[in-house]
Design brief:
PFN_sf; 33% helix; Profilin; 147 residues; seven-stranded antiparallel beta sheet; globular; actin binding; Beta-Lactamase
């Protein structure tokens, strides 16, 4: 694993995509994740921006991903509940059902061979498109290195 590559690319990507006004994402989380690896290799938070990830909450989220019951279960991030709205080969999207924001909130979860990448955004269709483009930019960097 080339941690220097991952960290360097995360920093470049995050400063242009996450957090401040006008950015497509309000938060992002990169989790070291290999469901086929030995059980002694625990998933860890590799990088985070815009949120303080709680390890217990992350563990519950990882269990949700491992179970794969996307259409019949929901997941929680920062005490917000999300239902999965679309499922694709290496990623899925969710909408927050506990949001108090009139435009709503969404999540994109992208899987690479070594990472689980969670991106959160505020808004609806246009915001979701901008968020997916931002997620794609970072995911392509990881996939080029087969990470």
């Amino acid at each position: 694993m080339d941690w220097a590559f991952v960290s360097r690319n995360w920093e470049k990507w995050a400063c242009n995509s996450v957090g401040s006004a006008g950015q497509p994402l309000k938060a992002a989380l990169l989790i070291n994740y290999d469901p086929t690896g030995p059980s002694r290799l625990l998933s860890t938070i590799a990088e985070e921006e815009g949120l303080e990830a709680d390890p217990i909450e992350v563990g519950e989220f990882l269990n949700f991903v491992k179970r794969g019951n996307y259409q019949s279960e929901s997941f929680f991030i920062e005490s917000n509940q999300y239902v999965v709205t679309s499922i694709h080969e290496s990623w899925f999207c969710g909408r927050c059902i506990s949001s108090s924001k009139p435009t709503g909130e969404g999540a994109i979860v992208y899987r690479t061979p070594s990472f689980l990448f969670l991106a959160l955004y505020d808004g609806s269709i246009g915001a979701a498109s901008r968020a997916m483009a931002a997620v794609d930019r970072f995911a392509l960097q990881l996939e080029r290195r087969n990470l």
